[in-house]
Amino acid sequence: MAGIFVAGETLVDFVPDSGETLREVDSYAHRPGGAPANVAVGLARLGSPPAFWTRLGDDAFGDFLAETLAAAEIPETHVERVEGKTTLAVVSPPGEGGPRFSFYGDRDATFGFDPDAVPTEALTGNDGAASPGGASAPPWVHLGGVALTHLRGRAATRELRSAATAAGCPVSFDVNYRSDLVPPETAEAASTAVRETVAESGVVLCSDEDAAAAGLSTSEGGELARDLLALGPHTVVVTLGRDGALAVSTDDAPWGATTVRHDGFPAEAVDATGAGDAFTAGLLSRLAGSAESESGADAEALREAVAFGNATAALSVRSVGGMGSIPSREEVEALLAERE
């Protein structure tokens, strides 16, 4: 099948131990994170190793992340080492109000992608890192919303998105908006960039919380999906946390016009950090595969992809940390077989 190309940030999550509030937390554990990085590693564990364009600082945390990506068999081809401190994302204890993540460090190093360094050669289908097995079809390109909070990240994402469209690559976009990363004076520009990326992507993933934060819609569920479809994508997947996911597509989608609602799977949650990224990895691994299969994509392919994403997310919450808890393809398939 065609490869998958993921672009976006890799950072370090600091996850609290037991305790509802900061006063009750005795320690934090550092874990590799960043939504696109979680998706990239998740795809590798699910049998669809992608190419990954990301930036790592030149500090010890950058070394830690480079080692983590290498251990996950992510090709180094588009992993950039740059001057600066790695961004740290401190996860709030469950009882604290305010943002779930607070960010520290040099944001330029992590989010400041160079618009002049977009690896367009990876979009031709001739880049071995982006096309496992020597596939010649253009890769599926997946983008994350956090890079759009940074001036250069916005410009680079726009360049990559345009190049992907010109190369005939399917494009997916996880809104994943973090308003606390956006200075007030650039909030309108960041929101506009999110809206443009939604409009020019084929598949869009979004929660109602992210949609509201980005100024896209204050609706929920099916109404949110319809609001986002009106902007231009052919498929919108609304993530619903422990309640599963809803996917709505138009006639322009490879799988046709359909609506899929999957309630998810019961799970004993230890830590939900990165569960949405696990869902995204599971969904994309199936959508990219169905689009390139001999039988082609259809409504059943979308239903199977949503179920596979939900199973991946349910298994991912069993341990602490987003990236390290993503299951293997065999584990996901076993859960699906058990539920069937």
Automatic annotation (TrEMBL):
Key words, A-Z: ATP-binding, Kinase, Nucleotide-binding, Transferase
Signal peptide region: none
GO molecular-function term, one example from the UniProt record: ATP binding
PANTHER family, per database record: HEXOKINASE FAMILY MEMBER, PSEUDOURIDINE KINASE-RELATED
Pfam families according to UniProt: PfkB
UniProt xrefs under CDD domains: bac_FRK
Top-level taxon of the source organism: Archaea
Domain Carbohydrate kinase PfkB per the UniProt entry, residue ranges: 2-328
Transmembrane segments: none
Family indicated by similarity: Belongs to the carbohydrate kinase PfkB family.
The keyword Transferase belongs to this UniProt entry's keyword annotation: yes
Keyword NAD assigned: no
GO biological process: fructose metabolic process
Name used for this protein in its record: Carbohydrate kinase
Alphabetized Gene3D superfamilies for the sequence: 3.40.1190.20
